[in-house]
Write the structure tokens for this entry.
Amino acid sequence: GAGHLRADPEVGVEGGGGLMAPRRIAIVDDHPLLAVGLRRALERSGTVVDQLDPLVGAEQVVQAMMSRRPDCAVVDLGLPFAGGGLGLIGPLVADDIRVVVLTGEADRLLLARSLLAGAEAVISKSEPLPDIVSTILQVTAGDPVRTGDRAELMNDLHRVADEQAKRDSLF
């Protein structure tokens, strides 16, 4: 059926006077207040924003993303379904959708795993809104995000993996 049609990413949307189509961002977060505030801030920058309801489940969220084709998906890790937001990252990245993780999660290994799964950036919900918006817009534009934390998180992950390997080799 029509579900197999896929937009060609090389073909831009024709706008008046050959202007670029506005960038599109999808937000998946189960905290409505935060999602609405973020959506409004991003819309002020001229971005088209889709706010997706995570309560429909992981499969529906991924399908909605595939049909909307956002340039970037902002994903909360603590979503109310199996695998949480971490489970969304792989399928989205495989479909050429950039992912920013926005989370209240403090588990550094989970944050590192998000980067390993393909997220471009991990941002804490406690960061000031302008910083969050700025990082999301950078990723959406395809700009590399400089976060000193990224290297630290990956080091944490490797250290724990090494410790785990040593423990496993004892038994």
Observations:
- The helical segments are 32-44, 58-68, 86-94, 108-117, 129-140, 148-170.
- The beta strands are 24-28, 48-52, 72-75, 98-103, 121-124.
